[in-house]
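User: My collaborator sent over this chain with a note saying "see what the structure looks like." That's all I know about it. Can you take a look?
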Amino acid sequence: MHIEKLEYLVEVAKTGSISKAAQNLHVTISAVSQAVSSLEEEWGVSVLKRSRSGAVPTAEGAVIIKKAVELLHKYEELKDAAQGYSNTVQGRLRLATIPGPMFLLEQAVLDFKQKYPQVKIEIAEQGSQDIIDNILNDKSDLGFIILFKDRLVEHLGVTFERLLKVKMVAATSIHSPLAFQKVITPGELKQQSVVLYNDDYVKWFMDDFQKKYGEVDIAYTTNNRSLISRACMNHLAVTVGLNYSFITEPLFAEDDTVILNFDLPEESPVYLGVIQQKDHIPSTISKHFLDRLKHDISALQQML
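Assistant: Without extra context I'll predict from the sequence alone. Here is the result:
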């Protein structure tokens, strides 16, 4: 019995389709079908019930497939151990992230590349939905997004692991009349000229804020951080963003910055996290990289 046959079987069970499994695995439909038939012949039991609408596990097959997933996890652990001794981790790592965490990833990627020079790393900065789609379609290995109450990703075929609890804050110049405050109320924000970074969660937060408290004077939204910085420093505008983003890459010098907490009712928790395909066995490379990133985030958590 070959490990590949188990991988084919698990992928068919996950997708509910031999053709979809073949597409995801980049092999022929015939190869997947023959692999499943070979296993059923070897084991003497029907594992999948095939029909025009797809392929679903039989009662016996569901138990067997669960064991197959467990065995594949153990096989990955075995490879991890072997590569740990040989120190020849190689392959590729495809990362997709919303703009904010890019600066969290930067040092982790450089350190990881230095330790594992044979790994090819690709990083794409995208919107949250594009990231979710790429994870589902196996175009990215790890995706970094913000999870909040209106975004449920577990049912989409991906898993979400929390990395960092975050919250929204406001930031402005030390010369602003708000500089002597520690918090900002909805009424005070509505009196300011606001500039925003073009980010999915920032947009959701501000839309929700305006529904609850009224319209905010948003001068503009941009991906140009220097435009936001100049508006705050030269025109005493206020910007809104996730707290960690002002630490990992400050918009302006620390002595010139005022960070204000929002005086709002307690909201549902918000997390920066990583998504992967559900029921997908993470690669050795992905696991090593996440371990390295979690080390950095643990240090950042002490600063928040």
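A starting point for your reply to your collaborator: The chain has three domains: 3-84, 89-162+274-297, 166-262.
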